[in-house]
Amino acid sequence: MSEHFEVEWLGSVRYGEALERQLAAVEARRGGGPDRLLLLEHPPVITLGRSARPENLRSQPAALRARGVELFEVARGGDVTWHGPGQLVGYLVADLAARGTPDVGAWLRRIEASLSGALGALGVETRAIPGMTGVFLRADGPDGPRKLASIGVGLRGWISWHGFALNVTCDLSGFDDIVPCGLAGVRMTSVAEALGAAPTAALFERARLAVAAAFREGFA
Amino acid sequence: MSVVVTLPQLGESVLEGTIARWLVKEGDRVERDQPLVEVTTDKVDAEIPAPEGGVVEAILAPEGATVEVGAELARIATGGAPARAPAGAPAARSSAPAPPATASERPAAPVRATPVAKRAAEEAGIDLARLEASGPGGRVRRADVERASAPAQAKAAGAPAPAAKAAGAKPARPPARARDDADAAARARFGHYAIQEGDQVVPMSPLRKLVAEHMVYSKRTSPHVGTVAEVDLGGVAAVREQHKRAFQAAHGLPLTYLPFVVHATVRALREYPALNASVLEDAIVEKRDIHVGIAVETDKGLVVPVLRHADRLSLAGLSAAIEDLSNRARTKKLTADDLKGGTFTVSNPGRTGNLYGFAIINQPQVGILRMGEIVKRPVVRELAGEDAIVIRPIMHLALSYDHRAVDGAPANGFLHRVKELLEEAEFDL
Fold first, then answer.
1. In this complex, do B43 and A156 lie within 8 Å of one another by their Cβ atoms?
2. Would the CB atoms of B20 and A50 count as touching at under 8 Å?
3. Same domain assignment for residues B117 and B167
4. pLDDT digit string (tens) for A47-86?
5. Interface probe, candidates A51, A135, A136, chain B, greatest B C-beta count within 10 A
6. How confident is the model at residue A43 (pLDDT cuts 50, 70, 90)?
7. Low-confidence residues of chain B: pLDDT under 50
8. Out of B289, B407, B416, B428, which one is annotated catalytic?
9. Mind telling me how many Å the CA of B422 is from chain A's nearest CA?
10. CATH (domain of B408)
């Protein structure tokens, strides 16, 4: 039972291309390859999971495309989300049966726990909210929970793909086009905002290394 | 040979999933491990693969449906099946009627239909033989049933559908689909709320959803009637007071009121089996065994673990079993078996803000007893031939019963018997 991941940093990758790389990793895993974590950033894109409701997209698709925002419907759980520069995306390709935990609930909780560990190392205190998958700031904002990371996975048999998106230094106005994850009462925040730090490339780099370490070393 | 594809156990907390989309259709040939259907649960989209290669014989759960773990999703005819030629194979007889050979083998000429179509036809009270089959191999598909039942449904609102009656079928029950539509329409009219800024949105947990569905189902299925008795717990309080220290020493357990109430309830159920029953289509089943559900509120929600053969347990045995079940409920260690098979339920929802109240019947049972708070009250008693006002600990005990199965007289008789047994307070400790 292997607990760790082979971690790769892919840089900025368009959504469609990343999807193909994920599928290749799924095939490789099925053929006995390793569990992998693909870390990357996307150019601006909005993706709709299988539970997405159209009203959670606030802008017209044509208007989005005109602004260079791509739109994808994907086979992952969850509602609608935004990806873009400054957001650390992690695609986890793992065989849950081989890990000895063929339980998607436990899998989602373990992803949350690893991200929470990485964020703790960066000095950001987090919490989980029962019934709402994701990683939230420990302290709520004036208008409710503040979300740092979204999680949604797909299963092909027991091989899991898709994963998480952690807001590090991204411009949060990207989320204005959507109701993130269909949760109207939840506001998005980022590591930079939580720390009151400047959204620098150095901060993104620190976050990337902390997340890579949390997954490379095995689950908390 | 055919195999049934069911929704697999995806995780301990996953009780159900929603059919997001079918990747195959009826009649398609599939390879082993080929993804058949995408099922979503919270934050997870699972592709369910074919367990064997073969031909998709029937799709049993439509897109958008929410199904429980273990529910049948599809049936696949595996190789060598006499069922039918694979669609798309050379010389497939997809449009030809069933060959005569089949008919002569089975003189009754059974109608070929998909399982979904069979069920839909049964629900709608339609004779399959009267339907035009559009499926491959002359099979009746659900769409055929729906086409035929649409006009019948429209009429059903006014007069009974003559076609169904003439065919000697059961009276048409409105199919589930029609009710779903009605629900959706009602929700749109009365239940719409637009989320405002500042609102907290707390998604329902699977358990919460299950409880909600059960509550609505119970209210819709059985006409609830409530009746209340005032019970003097002075006798029980005295027994408790006298024995609680020795009981704690002997059994390591506190002696609470709940086991006394359960004990009296099972004795009364023995005398009034009408309350230890279920409604089964057009029959009432009175059960031999008495298994009492105990409603326990946990931080995750309401669960009702079951005291098996509660009538065979002594007061101490009931105490220990209740203690064990409530502990395991709170520490989430209950098994599926702990929650199954109750024949009657006792609910003890707490001490304050609860003079009395009527619980919703735990289906498919026909009665539920709900304990109110225990309060000292002035009551009139005869003392030495004189009426006197005395102070006694009083509890209101409320019975909800299913009026389909139980009438007022036995229900009141049962409740009165529970009251008598508690007031007599003859308990063996």
1. no
2. yes
3. yes
4. 988 777 777 788 888 888 888 888 888 878 777 889 999 9
5. A51
6. very high
7. 81-110, 150-177
8. B407
9. 42
10. 3.30.559.10
Nearest chain A residue to B194 by CA: give it. A184
Structural domains of chain A, with CATH: 6-216 (3.30.930.10)
Helix (H, G, I), strand (E, B) or coil at A48: strand
Residue B73: give its domain's CATH number: 2.40.50.100
State the pLDDT at residue B288.
92
DSSP letters for B266-294: HHHHHH-GGGSEEEETTEEEE-SS--EEE
Sign of the CA dihedral A208, A214, A217, A219?
negative
The domain containing residue B220 runs over which residues? 208-424
Give the pLDDT score at A164.
96
Contact flag A50-B198 (C-beta cutoff 8 Å) = no
* Number of structural domains chain B divides into: 3
Residue B34 with chain A: CB contacts under 8 Å: none
| pLDDT for position B132 | 62
Is B183 assigned a catalytic role? no
Summarize pLDDT for A163-210 with one digit per residue, the tens: 999 999 999 988 888 876 666 667 899 999 999 999 999 999 999 999
pLDDT, tens digit (0-9, with 9 covering 90-100), for A110-121: 999 999 999 999
- Burial code of A97-134, b = ≥16 C-beta within 10 A, e = fewer? eebebbbbbebbbbbbbbbbbbbeebebebebbeebbb
B214 is an active site residue: no
Identify residues of A whose CB sits under 8 angstroms from chain B CBs.
Answer: 49-51, 75-78, 102-108, 130-133, 143-144, 151-157, 183-186
Domain-located, residue B394 = yes
Whether the CB-CB separation of B121 and B113 falls below 8 Å is answered with: yes
Whole-number pLDDT of residue A61:
81
Angle between helix B142-156 and helix B115-124 axes, rounded to 10 deg: 10
Q: Do B205 and A185 touch (CB under 8 A)?
A: no
Q: Give the gap in angstroms from C-alpha B46 to the nearest C-alpha of chain A.
A: 4
Instruction: Flag whether B190 is in a domain.
Output: no
pTM over 0.90: no
Q: B255 in a domain, yes or no? A: yes
0.90 surpassed by complex ipTM: no
State how far the Cα of B108 lies from the Cα of A96, in Å rounded to an integer. Answer: 51
